[in-house]
Amino acid sequence: MYGDSYSLIKSLEQVADTLGFYVSRSSYDYKMLALYPKGKKEDGNESLPIYARDAQFGYGGSVEELLSYLYGWQRALEYTRQLGLTDKDKIQKKEEQYRHAHLVKVIENGKSD
Q1: What is the value of pTM for the model shown?
Q2: What percent of the chain has pLDDT over 70?
Q3: Which one of 10, 21, 22, 35 is most buried, by most CB atoms within 10 A?
Q4: Which residue has the higher pLDDT, 47 or 59?
């Protein structure tokens, strides 16, 4: 029994890691697990503003529920890639455009949100 639970938790952590999240206890309900965005990129630089690093993703539940949710998300991403609707380069380009627009807004206003 414990081996199955351990393997479920490890697979949940691996899937969450590939999608850019980490798993931790929910800040709203101590009996549930929740997804949180990773705060650092591979190069060690912060990828999220400080207020977003501690933000709980809008879904929480048991290990099985989170794993099922993440598998569904992963399948949806694979399906859109198969159809040619998106790929890694398009996603990175959109993220860079958003960061650039945010930087321009910060420069114009003189402060960050």
Answers
A1: 0.61
A2: 76
A3: 35
A4: 59
Residue bearing the bigger pLDDT, 87 or 102: 102
Name the token pair of 100: 């650039």
Phi/psi of residue 24, nearest 5 degrees: -150, 175
- Residues 25, 98, 72: CA angle, nearest 5 degrees: 45
pLDDT for the residue numbered 48: 58
Paired with 21 in beta bridges are 37
Nearest to 22 by CA among 44, 37, 33: 37
H helices of 19-87, where? Answer: 50-53, 63-82
Q: Which amino acid is at 87?
A: D
Q: How far apart are CA 4 and CA 64, in angstroms?
A: 11
Residue 74 has pLDDT above 50, yes or no: yes
- The four Cα atoms 56, 29, 62, 52 give a dihedral, to 10 degrees, of 0
Q: How far apart are CA 43 and CA 47, in angstroms?
A: 10
